[in-house]
Structure formats: C-alpha cells, structure tokens
Amino acid sequence: MSTSHAEHDHGHGSANGDHVPHVLPFKVYIATFATLLFLTVVTVAASYVDIGHTGNLIVALLIATIKASVVALIFMHLKWDHKFHGIIFVSALLFLAVFIGITMSDTEFRGEAEAIEAKNPVDLKDPFKAQRTGDIAIPKEAAAPAAAGSAAPAAGSAAPAAVPAKH
Amino acid sequence: MANTATVDELGHSPEVRGKNYLNQTAGVWSWLTTVDHKRIGIMYLVSVLVGFGLGGIFALLVRLELLTAKKTIMDATQYNQAFTLHGAAMVFLFIIPSIPASLGNFFLPLMIGAKDVAFPRLNLLSLYLFWIGAIFMLAAIVTGGVDTGWTFYVPYASGVSTTSVISATFGVFVMGFSSILTGLNFIVTLHKLRAPGMSWYRMPLFLWSLYATSIIQVLATPVLGITLLLLIFERAFHIGIFDPTLGGDPVLFQHFFWFYSHPAVYIMILPGMGVATEILTTHSKRRVFGYKAIAFSSVAIALVSFLVWGHHMFVSGQSELSSAIFSFLTFFVAIPSGVKMFNWLGTLWGGSIRFTVPMLYGIAFLFLFAIGGLTGLFLGTLSVDLHLHDTYFVVAHFHYVMMGSTAIAFFGGLHHWWPKMTGKMYDEKLARVGFALTFIGFNWTFFTQFILGTRGMPRRYYNYLDQFQPLHAFSTYGSWVLGTGFLITFICLARSLKSGAPAPANPWDSATLEWQTQSPPITENFEKAPIVTLDAYERPAEETA
Ligand code: HEM
Ligand SMILES: [Cu+2]
Predict the structure, then answer these.
(1) Does ipTM exceed 0.95?
(2) CB-CB contact of B308 with B333 (8 Å)
(3) Is residue B243, in this structure, part of any structural domain at all?
(4) Domain ranges for chain A
C-alpha cells in the first residue's frame, strides 16, 4: 500500500505514532460510494448471464473482491496508513484462508476410506486379517500370533464405539 | 536501581510514603469506577478465584458421584450438569482470564515501567463485560443448568438438550469480548508504553508470553463468538447450520469450536509458562538461559497453535486426509515447548536455588507440564488417539496441563507476587503444607486417571463397569487431599491479609522492575518514571561482581 500522495506523507510514519487524522475530500467518498453501487448493479446483472456455475462464481467473487478492496483502501484509509497496518490486514485474510482451507481438507475428502473398506471388508471374527493383506508393516511370521492377540484390542474398541452417546 | 531497597531507600518523597494504591481512596464506589490497572487486576483476581471455587465445588461433586459404579449422590441428569458446569466454570470463569487478567493486568505496566495500560477505561469495561458474562452463566445454572459438556457439541446443544444452553453460551460470548479487550490493551501497551530504555529484548519473559497470548486472544476469540452466535441462532430460530436434520453439518461445528479452543489452550498455558520463567529465574538467582529462545518460542507456539485444531476430531468423521494433516502438524507444537523446557532447566543449572514457596510451585510446574505435554503427543498420534479419545486418558492429559501446569503456575505467581500486591508476607510453613497437599493430591487424583483411560474407561459416563471401581475410588480420595490443599492455601493467604508481616519492596531479591517500587505500589506505580539501563534480569554491576 504505497503512498501515492506526497502531501500525505507527513505524520503517518512517525515512530511515536501520533496519528494525524487523514481527511479526504468529500468528492472522493461520494465517488467511492457510487463505485460500490455501480459494482452492486454489475453483480446483479452478471448473475443473469449464464457462463456456467464456476464461471458465475468466479465473476461474483471477483467483483466482491474489488468492492472489499475499495472499502479497505479508501473508506478504511489503509491506502494512506502505516504499511504495518496493511500487513496486519493482509495477515487477517491469510488467517481466514488457513481456517477455510484446512477445513476444506475435511469437507472435500470425507469418507474416502469407506470405499476402500467396502472393497476390503473386515471380518469381525478376525478384524486384523483384512487389513493385513494391504499392510506391508507386518512380517509374515508375526502375523499368526498377532491374530490371536487381537481379541483384546477388539473388545477394547467397544468404548470408542459408544462415543456418539456423549454428543 | 538497588535490588534490596527497602521502602525508604527507594527515594520516595515524604508525601508518598505510606500511601499506596490500596489506601489512596476508599469505598466500594472508588473500586467500581477505578481505572487503575492494579485495582482492576485485584478485582479480576477475586472474580477468578470465585470462579475457581465454584468450579471446584462441582469437581468434588463429580468425583464423589464416581466413587461407586452406580448412583452415589445424584442422578444421571444431575451428573451431566455437574461435569458441564465444572468444565465451563473452570475454563471460562477461571483459567482463561486467570493469569492475564489478574496478574497480567497488575504487573504488565509495572514491569515495563509504565503508569497504566494504554486504555485504562477499556480495561474496566473488560472487567464489567466479564461480570456480565458470568451473570449469564450463573443465570443458566439457576434456570435449569447446562448438560452439554463445556464444548457445547451439536446437535445435542442446538436441538436436543432441554437445559439453559442459550443463557450459558451467551454468557461465554460476552466474556469473549472481555478477553479480546484485555488482549488488545496488552498489545498496545507493550508497543507504546515501555519506559525509556526498555527495549523488547529487555522485557521480562512473562511479558513476551502475555504478548503471544494477546495475539491469540485477539485473533481466535472472535471465531468462538461467531460459533456460539450461530449455535444460538440455530437453537432459537431453527436455522440449519450444524444440525443435520436442518441440513447442517455437525462436524463443521467442531471445526469452528476447536479453531478457537485449541489456540485457547495456549491462552491458558502461555501465561503460565511466563510466570514459571519469572519464578525460576528469581528464585535461583540466575539470569534466564536462552532469553530469545524462550521469547520466540512463545510466539511460535501462538502461531502453530492455529494449525492443529483437528486433533480433537480424529473420530468425528472428518476426512482421513484432514486427520493425517492435523496429526502431522500437531507434532510441531512439541518443538517450541521442548525449547522452553530445556531453557528452563538450563536456567536452573548452576543457579543458587532457594526452595521458597513460589519456587516449589515453579518446579512442580516443570514436572507436571512435562507429563501433560508429552501425553499430548500420545494423543496427537492418530493411531493411538483412536483408542484413547474420549477416555480418562484425555481427562488426565488436560488436567495435567490446565490444572497441573497453568493453575499451579497461577498459584506460584500468586505466592511470588503476593507481597507486592498486598504488602503482606504470608506464613511460609502453612503455604508449604498447602503446596504439598495440592501437589500430592493432584497427582493422586489424575495420574490414576491415565491408568483408567488406558484401560478403556470412557469419560463423561455416569455408570461404569465394576472393574474400574477401585481406581475411581482411589482418584476420588485424591481429590479430597487436593481440595484440602487448596483450602489451606486460601486460609494461609487470607490470614496474611489480616496478620501478615509487612512486605519489603523486594523480598525475593528479584532483578525485574516491579520490585523496584514500594510494596504495595503507589497509584502511579513509580514516583519517578524509571529509565532502564540494564538487560533483562541483569543486576547492577557492583552486585554481580
Ligand atoms: C504439548 C502440546 C499438546 C498437545 C500435542 C496436545 C494434544 C491434544 C490432543 C491430541 C487432544 C485430543 C484428545 C482427544 O480428545 O482424543 C487434546 C485434548 C485436550 N487438550 Fe491437549 N495438547 C497439548 C497441550 C495442551 C495444553 C497446554 C492444554 C491446556 C492448557 C491442553 C488442553 C487440552 C484439553 C482441554 C483437551 C480436551 C478437550 C476436550 O475434549 O474436552 N492441551 N490435547
Ligand atoms: Cu488441542
């Protein structure tokens, strides 16, 4: 967010931070407001043009992003503010991206193991057998005792199965 | 700056002598309208101790009920309410505000040589918001209780439970604002009000930990706010967000909730780590080893804490991909935690350790946090957690970190700074007895629960299999020892208010700034604004020589 107005440079970068309020001409506010209104009309208009689901989504998000930037830069004065505040603002967006992004690693990929398990059903009497076919970690000799010892963990898993009762 | 200065040696003018923030003005009104960070800190202290007492009573009730495998003193619905209110009171009324809002409020300005926080009125507002939120929570208790667990999981909380969920969650919502305001205030204060010469790297490490905590409070708490608001909307107006019968996604609620609540566990522990640092350096008379490592590990913990929330959701039905990512990322938390651990040990190494009461708490902290933190890694291991999730192992883990680490650090800090806050010394012997019973009772109660958990005892169960009964009973006996320990500690501190010997300005011979003014401090903190010429924890040259 570089400072394009030389006359605004004073008072904003001062280390002891006494913030000089930044006053914009009234015209600028009106023009910004008009821009926002105009972009709203564009959003509505664009929704009538069918360029496919993704296409429409991209256009709508693009317009919304421009509007948000105008608000942040002009109404919120970030354009003339400390660079540091710009960094804070952008990191807030990154923060949101982390939240939504990682959450989507769940919502977009749910239940993938189910398909694999369906192909490879577990024998309840010998629950570790089906897994063993795909499990490279268990050496062959160890396989037999492991099956015998599996009775205990299988019984123990009754507790996690009762979990939904808590919710 | 002499370290062992008595009140008169501090060079106070005759007008100031004998005056302090406690007796400057008198009357309830002067407290309720004060903007003095020290008085606000004291009011927070009293408030969180009341919250601790309330949570403690519910805890003892829960343990008593679990003494036998079937009904002991209450029915199943009352039991659900008891553990919910225990958790909610301890988390929201005690541990989140505990160290930052009480000790932090009191000492942050003193430690940087400032007169007050940056926004004193906002500080008072945050206290009022805390009280208002607490009233909503108390109202929930009176008007039907809450039985959802402190996590308010949907769809139970949004549709099924018939208890006062809205009042409780709204209370938490309001308290969230209090938390945000405190965090904001601390960030600005640390940036703007440090005394001349007090550079970032000269700050006591408690302040770095408060800084990191504040970042989390400001960033994460709004997410809790919106989550609870959405929950309230769903419950009140049946708008489908989380409830599957209304078209919502219940796992989404868990994402929202833990996106706040995992970072929130660092809101709880980071200040405790900060307090421990101050105690360990002061009472071993040694400068902190690895100052920058400890400072930046606090910030690193704050940042990493935002990337691991899904480790609470391994069995929720979230995607396997997510679970794997979260399990992987969880291990990164261990790095900055380990960095701190070794630097604390390095600080003690070769120091002249004095086993004062605060130091006992400090050492207990090291011991208990090691157990709590390492068992966190067990739980972060995906394959292990599938078995341990929702068992007593988890209960034991988080009590080791919340109670064993944060609460122990809080009480250590209370004993450390008590002379400064109140101007009174306490009875060391009695305080030791209180500490010993707390420490023994704590391990007695909760180590048992690790064993219960690994044997498959699920958490939040009213009735349980007979085979668990001996261990449950054992744990309950421990809780009585623990309760007695706290009772003795409270009696000890309360007695000191009445009959304690007057405290000198610097009873522990500490090198930090808050001890360079009288005990208790004057309203303006320092008569002459201090100018800092020494590094953090550095002593004047003639003393180190
Ligand atoms: C050293 C780093 C830590 C790691 C790796 C860790 C890991 C975990 C994991 C994986 C769980 C979920 C267990 C499950 O439900 O199956 C958990 C639960 C929990 N942890 Fe930690 N933890 C750590 C430190 C802490 C700290 C410092 C606190 C608080 C001061 C804390 C408080 C909690 C709480 C309250 C829960 C249980 C929440 C609930 O379900 O009610 N943890 N931890
Ligand atoms: Cu967590």
Answers:
(1) no
(2) yes
(3) yes
(4) 2-82, 113-166
